[in-house]
């Protein structure tokens, strides 16, 4: 039932959308979502931003890494810097991106066109996905004048659900990406940028899938909220 509902919603969005790029983006997902999760084209995503408010803050960089047939396509990992209005300011303390590094960055509109092309036909994967998706939706609305629906697996939400089966209370910091990875014995990456974090998120998802499914086959809807 959820499968049919999501397909219908994507098809309806594609029909009603006035922009051919976004219409095609929605339509490309329709034949994919019925596939077993191990065969579903996935794209791990991470963003670096100037802050946490998608209405006022800006996207600085986007990291992508595809997951096909249950395998991370590390050689196809991509990292894109995005130009902004003004300075990165104090946010550089968090993400490490400096103003002079953005001299050759692409515009926000170019970045959104690139993002839509690269992720077309893929279900997105992100840690704390609602935050990244809000920024992407806000920027696409500004660039295209259209709303967009993403289909995304949130590895933070997956881990929260798993932990709540074992504990009544989840301690602060337990759901951070690095903390989640430690529980699966995954390594710590010293470097930090959107591409590395996308890789870290993708690895976490594969570990979660193995832990949840065992020898069973999962569907997309086993991991959607």
Q: Which SSEs are present, and which pair or pack?
A:
Layout: H1 2-16, H2 20-29, E1 42-49, E2 59-68, E3 71-72, E4 78-81, H3 92-95, H4 108-119, E5 123-126, H5 129-144, E6 152-154, H6 155-164, H7 177-183, H8 194-213
Parallel strand pairs: 1-5, 5-6
Antiparallel strand pairs: 1-2, 2-3, 2-4
Helix pairs in contact: 1-2, 7-8
Would you give an account of this structure?
By secondary structure, this protein is α/β, with parallel strands linked by helices. The protein contains eight helices and six strands; from the N terminus they run ααββββααβαβααα. Strands 1, 2, 3, 4, 5 and 6 form a six-stranded mixed β-sheet that branches. The chain is globular, with a radius of gyration of 17 Å. The model has no long low-confidence stretch (mean pLDDT 93).
Observed structural traits:
single chain, 225 residues, alpha/beta, six-stranded mixed beta sheet, 6 strands, 42% helix, globular
In short:
42% of the residues lie in helices and 14% in strands. It has 225 residues and is of the alpha/beta class. It starts with a helix and ends in a 12-residue tail after the last helix.
Q: Specify the biggest β-sheet.
A: 6 strands, mixed
> What's the order of the H and E elements?
HHEEEEHHEHEHHH
Q: Approximately how much helix is present in the residues?
A: 40-55%
Radius of gyration (CA) equals: 17 Å
Count of alpha/pi helices: 8
Sequence stretches where pLDDT stays below 50 over 5 or more residues? none
**Into which percentage range does the β-strand content fall?**
5-15%
